[in-house]
Amino acid sequence: MKICVLPGDGIGVEIIAEAVRVLDVLNSDGLKMELEYAELGGCAVDSTGSPYPEATQKLARAADAVLLGAVGGPKWDVLPRPQRPERGLLGIRKDLNLFANLRPAVLYPELANASSLKPEVVSGLDILIVRELTGDIYFGEPRGISVEDGKRVGRNTMIYNEDEIRRIGHVAFKSAQKRNKKLCSVDKMNVLETTQLWRDVMIEISSEYPDVALSHMLVDNAAMQLVRAPKQFDVMVTGNIFGDILSDEASMLTGSIGMLPSASLDENNKGMYEPCHGSAPDIAGKGVANPLATILSAAMMLRYSFANEAAATRIEAAVKKVLAAGLRTGDIWEEGTKRVGTREMGDAVIAAL
Ligand code: NAI
Ligand code: MG
């Protein structure tokens, strides 16, 4: 199993180091993972001028999975858009055809107080948002800012073809089959034709999954329902822009950005795995970042790309054990728990493993 490791920028370097130490433990227990490092984002801009340089493309394409820290930071915000770190991220997603973004939002019982919602509303929350990642208004043409009739006009295009909708639909239905057989498709079919097609295609393929109950919700209502009664959802599937917003909303119900992993998959379960958070420039280099989102992303990698459920649950169980023992990084710390740094958290997970 070849893994391309991209630490990236800011805390990316610190948290990836801990995830790699966890993988090393599994390797020493007999797994055969080969790790190769490359640059993505700001660090790549600094050394090559491109946020997704050719050497990284080569390695990422040849690997079975990519493990990414985070990219970006204020240092690079002054650059023209094509050279910004975030373009590296969009570039690798598109290049590897990672159209399926899986974002679990799980509230660990030990972190119940981290949520801004009442315990009875969120306790036991465990939802999975399946977001389409390579289409929609983020990539649609035409786009840009132009001058028309003496006025500046901004333009983006929301576009999906039925094949793009169908393939993300299949990922979502299959995910629902492995969980509680409930799928909610989110659209805005009352005003957007693109999403009318989205709904039509979801209904069409639902006949292949008779064991899954498919429901539909308009995106504005979904945003409300997520804060009103989030536990009504199990798996949600939606397009790129709605999924961007709803998955951030859902993840924040758990109150702990440092805990949230993600997977982005292609058609053959090759994937890129990364925490949901960014490079956290405010705490970078201080050794206080929470490495658990990245460690849990490595667990998702074992589950989805390497079909090693046992190793994935072993990592997840170790994380739960560490939380139960009361260890907390700053982002999830509360009165009565023990505050630890990035390295100590990694040590604790390894000990629990
Ligand atoms: P951010 O997620 O980096 O940070 C938001 C807040 O959460 C900060 O206060 C940060 O300290 C805290 N935080 C994030 N991860 C943490 C962790 N593991 N442990 C403890 N605290 C943590 O989002 P922000 O500040 O909006 O963006 C910073 C940079 O990251 C920007 O350049 C942005 O473009 C980039 N970014 C990159 C992403 C990626 O690589 N996938 C995703 C989101 C942002
Ligand atoms: Mg986002």
Automatic annotation (TrEMBL):
Its EC number is 1.1.1.85. Residues 2-349 form the Isopropylmalate dehydrogenase-like domain. Keywords: Amino-acid biosynthesis, Branched-chain amino acid biosynthesis, Cytoplasm, Leucine biosynthesis, Magnesium, Manganese, Metal-binding, NAD, Oxidoreductase. It comes from the Bacteria. The keyword Membrane does not apply. InterPro entries: IsoCit/isopropylmalate_DH_CS, IsoPropMal-DH-like_dom, Isopropylmalate_DH. Substrate binds at R93, R103, R131, D220. It is found in: Cytoplasm. Its cofactor is Mg(2+); Mn(2+). Pathway: Amino-acid biosynthesis; L-leucine biosynthesis; L-leucine from 3-methyl-2-oxobutanoate: step 3/4. It is an enzyme of class 1 (oxidoreductase). It catalyses: (2R,3S)-3-isopropylmalate + NAD(+) = 4-methyl-2-oxopentanoate + CO2 + NADH. NAD(+) binds at residues 73-86, 278-290. The record marks Y138, K188 as: Important for catalysis. One of its GO terms (molecular function) is 3-isopropylmalate dehydrogenase activity. Mg(2+) binds at D220, D244, D248. Binds 1 Mg(2+) or Mn(2+) ion per subunit. Belongs to the isocitrate and isopropylmalate dehydrogenases family. LeuB type 1 subfamily. Catalyzes the oxidation of 3-carboxy-2-hydroxy-4-methylpentanoate (3-isopropylmalate) to 3-carboxy-4-methyl-2-oxopentanoate. The product decarboxylates to 4-methyl-2 oxopentanoate. PANTHER family: 3-ISOPROPYLMALATE DEHYDROGENASE (PTHR42979:SF1). Homodimer. HAMAP family: LeuB_type1. This is 3-isopropylmalate dehydrogenase. It comes from Uliginosibacterium flavum.
